[in-house]
TrEMBL record, chain A:
<keyword id="KW-1003">Cell membrane</keyword>
<keyword id="KW-0762">Sugar transport</keyword>
<keyword id="KW-1133">Transmembrane helix</keyword>
<dbReference type="GO" id="GO:0005886">
    <property type="term" value="C:plasma membrane"/>
</dbReference>
<dbReference type="GO" id="GO:0022857">
    <property type="term" value="F:transmembrane transporter activity"/>
</dbReference>
<keyword id="KW-0812">Transmembrane</keyword>
<dbReference type="InterPro" id="IPR001851">
    <property type="entry name" value="ABC_transp_permease"/>
</dbReference>
<feature type="transmembrane region" description="Helical">
    <location>
        <begin position="285"/>
        <end position="305"/>
    </location>
</feature>
<feature type="transmembrane region" description="Helical">
    <location>
        <begin position="6"/>
        <end position="28"/>
    </location>
</feature>
TrEMBL record, chain B:
<feature type="transmembrane region" description="Helical">
    <location>
        <begin position="55"/>
        <end position="77"/>
    </location>
</feature>
<dbReference type="GO" id="GO:0022857">
    <property type="term" value="F:transmembrane transporter activity"/>
</dbReference>
<feature type="transmembrane region" description="Helical">
    <location>
        <begin position="297"/>
        <end position="313"/>
    </location>
</feature>
<dbReference type="Pfam" id="PF02653">
    <property type="entry name" value="BPD_transp_2"/>
</dbReference>
<feature type="transmembrane region" description="Helical">
    <location>
        <begin position="238"/>
        <end position="261"/>
    </location>
</feature>
<keyword id="KW-1003">Cell membrane</keyword>
<dbReference type="InterPro" id="IPR001851">
    <property type="entry name" value="ABC_transp_permease"/>
</dbReference>
<feature type="transmembrane region" description="Helical">
    <location>
        <begin position="12"/>
        <end position="35"/>
    </location>
</feature>
<keyword id="KW-0812">Transmembrane</keyword>
Length: 322, 372
């Protein structure tokens, strides 16, 4: 494995990390505001379907993205209604949303496109195309640095750049703005905000709208940038890996990025490690690498490597009069 | 929820869930109308498919048995204040124990297979639930998150076992089939009405599990401890109840109950273990437990509803090919959403209607306090 191989591996890691990162940041807003979101998976799935279906019908990928964000935000609002207004169980609401997306996407896919639940393949101009940074070709001749520029930094779709831009933006919003301060506070101590005359519900609604929008982008990436159509259950657990990444990152944006990249490397190396004999250990089963993000998260949660502390008020509906 | 007036008992236990389920079916019907098909035809196909024939009943009761096990699993843990959403993984890992013992004993007699695989399934399910329980009790990691993670770890682990370790020669990711002498008897062997249905002897285990859970939770010392811990951990501590012990025992029972699904589905019907055999039944158990208010009677009824939905969905695919059978998944999701997460939706309306009768009504226990 030489430098070029490593750069290519990192490149595919970045591609695999992007949907995780977007979903992870989405979950960050929700959970920081005190609302558990195990429905990330469902929102991404619904968004992926909306993006692919709209792009296939209209031929416009941007309309697809818009539809994805609309569907995902709508689902997020159902979650808001259940957890804020009806003070329902947020975990059950998340489970329901996951089922709802799994059902609706295939149901409508069957009925509309009659292709066994998938959407038609998108032409290259109906997808998010890759963006070449200036002089990528020329600069690519330079060993290592040039290759990093050409392979790793250049040649991604706009959503990839958006995802990595969302990290500093989220960090800034969360730690440097008034909204961010209130968002963190409402997840820790909603009563204090209420006493100070701010609306707990409004803040949580705002957070869940952002969650919906970001999940929408994540879903659109899967079906119109990384892939070229929607297929049944195409998120295949990414929403839950994102949730694991969020916990592993201790609900912080920069750490979220590094964790998602780490999980991206893990899944990119799955294929490469198949059949490879390690000295001392022997062959590592591919399933073990698949399970590694979850195992790491459990180990972290158990406090064996640091401590993951969730926002204090997470999961509890806020009751004003008491 | 101090602002909310208590309603008469029958309203909260019967009327509200019924309204919620009705609403789920109405929205499901709208989805059918949206794709240009007749909703009433689709609903009739669902209903007739589930209850119209003896075979339909057989399938419905078979699926219901699975839901009884996973529903009770969620309920037992919930009484101890633990939200075990790992039934999916526990049932999956239990399948390993069940099938290994069943394949080992299948040349002897089906009674040995039944008892052996039941014991192995319960042990494996319990083990897979004890770890998250122990992690919560001792290390403070939240059981909801750890059980989610354990579902995925189970899926990877079982994938490995089925592809690499216990694979049948020539097959892809499944075990060999249980030999004739070891197969569990079907109900149709005794009752003609259930012909061609997979309903088997494990159904009686489902009934026993319901009774067992009732006795355990409301008639034993352990059940009292479980409920005390769930209702008020602080009080439980003052009463000298060891939270660690009760949590671990409750999670073990919970996992063992979820594991029983393996006997019904893998050993009883599929007669081998295939990748992903649980197929969401563990998650539906959450809905079953919540709809049934964690009480065996309620769970039996909710399991019957979901069993009927599953079976009706299969028939729907035959009767009306234009309506994708995922309709069932949609209705199921809406039932979970409305009964589990939006249970209070109709409260204000019902409050207005029943306002005058309030003074006579007994205090209602508060439900569904979210956690995690």
């Amino acid at each position: 494995m030489d430098a070029t191989d490593i750069i290519l591996l990192l490149d595919s890691s970045v591609r695999l990390a992007v949907p995780l990162l977007l979903a992870c940041l989405a979950g960050l807003y929700s959970e920081r505001s005190g609302i558990v979101d195990i429905g990330l998976e469902g929102k991404m799935l619904g968004a992926a379907f909306a993006a692919a279906a709209t792009a296939a019908v209209t031929g416009n990928v941007w309309l697809g993205l818009l539809a994805a964000m609309a569907v995902s935000t709508f689902m997020s609002m159902i979650h808001a209604l259940a957890s804020i207004n009806f003070r329902g169980n947020q975990i059950i609401s998340g489970v329901a949303l996951n089922f709802l997306a799994a059902g609706f996407t295939v149901f409508l896919g069957h009925a509309w496109f009659r292709r066994g639940g998938t959407t038609p393949n998108l032409r290259p101009d109906e997808r998010f195309s890759t963006i070449d940074l200036p002089f990528a070709q020329e600069f690519g001749q330079v060993p290592i640095i040039g290759e990093i520029y050409e392979q790793l930094l250049s040649g991604h779709s706009i959503i990839v750049y958006f995802a990595f831009l969302a990290v500093p933006v989220t960090a800034f919003v969360l730690f440097r703005t008034r909204f961010g301060l209130r968002l963190r506070a409402v997840g820790e101590n909603p009563k204090a905000l209420d006493t100070a005359g701010m609306s707990v519900s409004l803040l949580r609604y705002q957070a869940l709208i952002i969650t919906g929008l970001l999940c929408g982008v994540a879903g659109a990436y899967l079906s119109t940038a990384q892939g070229a159509n929607f297929s049944e259950n195409m998120t295949s657990g990414r929403g839950f890996i994102a949730l694991a990444a969020l916990i592993f990152a201790k609900w912080r944006p920069w750490q979220a990025m590094w964790t998602c990249l780490l999980f991206g490397v893990l899944s990119a190396s799955q294929i490469r490690l198949q059949g490879v004999e390690f000295p001392m250990i022997g062959e590592v089963p591919v399933q073990f690498i698949q399970a590694l993000p979850y195992i790491l998260t459990v180990v972290l949660l158990a406090g064996f490597i640091g401590r993951a502390k969730a926002p204090k008020a997470i999961g509890q509906p806020y009751v004003k009069e008491r | 929820m101090s602002a909310r007036q208590p309603l008469p008992n029958w309203v909260t236990i019967v009327l509200m869930p019924a309204l919620n389920v009705l609403l789920a079916f109405i929205i499901g019907g709208l989805a059918v109308a949206m794709i240009g098909e007749n909703p009433l035809d689709a609903m009739w196909a669902l209903f007739y498919g589930a209850f119209g024939t003896g075979m339909g009943w057989g399938f419905t009761l078979h699926y219901a048995t699975n839901f009884i096990f996973t529903g009770l699993a969620v309920a037992v843990a919930y009484h101890a204040g633990m939200f075990n959403i790992g039934g999916e993984g526990q049932a999956y890992v239990a399948g390993l124990g069940a099938i290994v013992v069943a394949l080992w004993l299948d040349q002897t007699h089906w009674t040995l297979v039944l008892l052996g695989s039941t014991a192995a399934a319960m042990v494996m399910g319990a083990l897979w639930a004890i770890i998250p329980g122990w992690l919560q009790a001792k290390r403070g990691s939240h059981v909801v998150i750890t059980t989610i993670m354990f579902n995925f770890i189970a899926s990877a682990f079982m994938g490995y076992m089925l592809v690499q370790v216990i694979t049948a020669p020539g097959a892809n990711a499944e075990t060999r089939t249980i030999a004739e002498p070891g197969r569990l008897p079907l109900m149709s062997d005794w009752f003609d009405a259930f012909q061609y249905s997979p309903l088997n002897i494990t159904f009686f285990f489902g009934i026993l599990a319901l009774i067992f859970t009732y006795v355990l939770i409301w008639r034993t010392k352990l059940g009292y401890k479980i409920r005390t811990l769930g209702a008020n951990p602080e009080a439980a501590r003052y009463a000298g109840i060891s939270a660690v012990a009760v949590i671990i025992i409750a999670m073990a029972i919970s996992g063992a109950l979820a594991g029983l699904m393996a006997v019904n589905e893998a050993v009883g019907v599929q007669k081998r273990l295939v990748v992903g055999y649980v197929a969401g039944v563990g998650f539906v158990g959450i809905a079953v437990a919540f709809m049934g208010r964690s009480h065996p009677v309620g769970i039996a009824l909710a399991a019957l509803l979901f069993g009927a939905l599953y079976q009706g969905g299969q028939e729907l695919a035959f009767e009306l090919p234009a309506v994708p059978s995922e309709l069932v998944l949609i209705i199921q999701a809406l039932v979970i959403l409305f009964t589990g997460a939006m249970g209070e939706m109709f409260h204000p309306v019902l409050e207005r209607i029943f306002a005058k009768k309030i003074e006579a009504a007994p205090e209602e226990a508060t439900t569904s306090t979210g956690e995690a």
